[in-house]
Amino acid sequence: MTDSDVLPETFVPDRPTITAAVRLAGRAPSVHNTQPWRWVFDGTRLHLYRDGERLLTSTDPHGRQLVMSCGAALHHLRTAFAARGWHTDTVRLPDPERLDLLASIEFRPWPEAPTGVHSRARAIELRHTDRLPMLPPRNWAELVHLARMLANPHDVELDVLDAEAGARLAVASQHATALRRYDMEYQTELHWWTGHSHVTEGVPRGALVSDAEFSRVPVGRTFPSAPHSARRSEIEDQAQLMVLSTEDDSMLSWLHAGEALSAVLLECTVTGQASCALTHITELPTARKTITTLLPHHVVPQVVIRVGTAPDGEVPPTSPRRPVTEILTFDEG
Questions:
Q1: Do 137 and 240 touch, CB atoms closer than 8 A?
Q2: Which residues have a Cβ under 8 Å from the Cβ of 290 and sit 6 or more positions away?
């Protein structure tokens, strides 16, 4: 056998490492906490598939938010592997005949991951969505700089809305809510996925806000109301708004937008900020056009992020997740 006949060495994490990384990937944010992903390990590569059965046919008929959710899970996964010493060589949309296959990953050792990876990996367990009024974010200019650095490698633009643009966005948010109010298919879907207890998916009852609390948040999706409460009643919402945008509205761009969203939300958590990703404004064409007029360049807005600070010591509960056995399959043939 000559040197040219020697097969290249294959590096593969063991099952416990794969299982642990996929479990953390399952902590990614997803529209209505639908968790629309599944993973298959074939002995060499780990494949990410979209779960079409979890498509929100009224809220997200084209699957844009579904794919963004999977993109966030992909970034969570790669972060988890990097913190464990594995580089993930990722091919996105590897098979044009299999649009449900979003990514395929091969591995090689990576003993020294870049600065910040370990802190973001630790933040995966701590990140949560905060729908309540917020205090202003700390060290905002520095956070924006870091967030842009994290979004740019994914070909995603990050813009910050000033107070005037935020006020216009609030009007667009209210208009989107009004358009959905009597859409019975949308409302039925929304209620199906929210407000339940002791489940592993959907937005749990404890994560909802009351009408009084929601009335003090200018930009947010209207979920079924929680029982009356007045948490943070002394706080006037001072959250800042970021917008993540892409050059086009392709499936690959949706996937990249989800990856950038994950990176930004984890960095917010690392720096002690509260955050809430908003997609209800980008679901409707009219609202998306409004956002586009607020941005300094011609791009396609994909998601808005509220960023602020929660009162010291206040840690809202994290949403439940499906067990890893439901989302990971070992098919090593």
A1: yes
A2: 168, 169, 172, 281
> Which pair of structure tokens corresponds to residue 21?
């990384």
The Cα–Cα gap between 240 and 275 comes to 10
Separation between Cα atoms, residue 177 and residue 280, nearest integer Å? 8
109: left (phi over 0), alpha (psi -120 to 50) or beta: beta
In this structure, what are the phi and psi dihedrals at residue 28, rounded to the nearest 5 degrees?
-65, 150
pTM above 0.90, yes or no: yes
| φ/ψ of residue 123, rounded to 5 | -70, -15
Give the whole-angstrom CA distance, residue 300 versus residue 157.
9
- Summarised one tens digit per residue, pLDDT across range 224-260 is 988 888 899 999 999 999 999 999 999 999 999 999 9
Handedness of CA 151, 153, 48, 12 (dihedral sign): negative
Count of helices and strands (H, E) across the chain: 9, 11
Q: What is the pLDDT of residues 137-172, one digit of tens each?
A: 999 999 999 999 999 999 999 999 999 999 999 999
Q: Residue 105 region, left (φ>0) first, then alpha (ψ -120 to 50), else beta?
A: beta
